[in-house]
Amino acid sequence: MNLYLWVDLLILVFPLALSFDRKVRYVRSWPAAAASALLVGLPYAAWDSFMAARGAWAFSDRFAGAGRLLFLPLGEYLFFLVVPFACLFVSEVVRAYLPEKTVRPLRLPWIVIAAACGLAAVACGPRLYTATVLLATGIFLLLAAVLAPGMLASRRFWLSMLACYLPFLLANGLLTGLPVVTYDPGTILGPRAFSIPMEDFLYSFSMIGMNFLAFRILVPRLPGPRLPGPRRTGNPPAAPSDRSHDERQEQGARENKHEE
Q1: pTM reported for the whole predicted model
Q2: Do 209 and 140 form a contact (C-beta atoms < 8 A)?
Q3: How many Cβ atoms sit within 10 Å of the Cβ of residue 67?
Q4: Residue 133, Cβ neighbours under 10 Å: how many?
Q5: For 29-55, how does the pLDDT look when each residue is reduced to its tens digit (9 = 90+)?
Q6: Which band of pLDDT confidence, cut at 50, 70 and 90, is reported for residue 57?
Q7: 3-class DSSP string for the chain
């Protein structure tokens, strides 16, 4: 049985079924969600393939199937599509139902943290997974600080990220607990939460964060989806006074024509 595929489908089914909620209307954001997942998923899949080729992790034939494409099973490729789709759905639910609260956007502190992640990656060089996941986290924080500092200052962003970690604990706990995926002890530091290596938390943070960032950038550029923040309902309506004035002019013109 290919358990990995079933886990992917389970992750997908709830956001897919609830995409038509009248307040969230996630279905309108499907184009941006798909584009974000592909844009971010391609480099992450390449990273994943490289790590698997180096033996940093391996997949169980029993639970992930025996087939491999560039060292990865089908379920791993689907992972890069269904997880962002589900996490972006969570983000849209948070946006729709919870009020926003931001602090002053600051770039410098996040750039400093990104640089610290880069230095830590160098220090962890022999631990290949630890080093690369620290580097990925630093790259995300740097891009977010430069391109969308307001996102890192948003309460909705952090609540969305926190909410995404709840299904992450269930799904990743299952994948690492059976295990569907195993790790070379020489590539990680060793500490785990239950069966989940510490590095997986940073991996998820960077990948989900990259998808949030890509989604934020792509939404205004693709047809259909709503902009993050205040609800968009199309072209802004005319001010009431202007609309009333126009209606009065049209009514007067019709009356004058009738009198003629």
Answers
A1: 0.81
A2: yes
A3: 11
A4: 28
A5: 899 999 999 999 999 999 999 999 999
A6: very high
A7: CCHHHHHHHHHHHHHHHCCCCCCCCHHHHHHHHHHHHHHHHHHHHHHHHHHHHCCCEEECHHHHCCCCECCECHHHHHHHHHHHHHHHHHHHHHHHHCCCCECCCCCHHHHHHHHHHHHHHHHCCCCHHHHHHHHHHHHHHHHHHHHCHHHHCEHHHHHHHHHHHHHHHHHHHHHHHCCCEEECHHHCCCCEECCEEHHHHHHHHHHHHHHHHHHHHHHHHCCCCCCCCCCCCCCCCCCHHHHHHHHHHHHHHHHHHHHC
Taking the domains of the chain in order of start, what are their residue ranges?
Answer: 3-259
Residue with tokens 């750039």: 111
C-alpha 219: how far from its chain's center? 13
Residues β-bridged to residue 154? 102
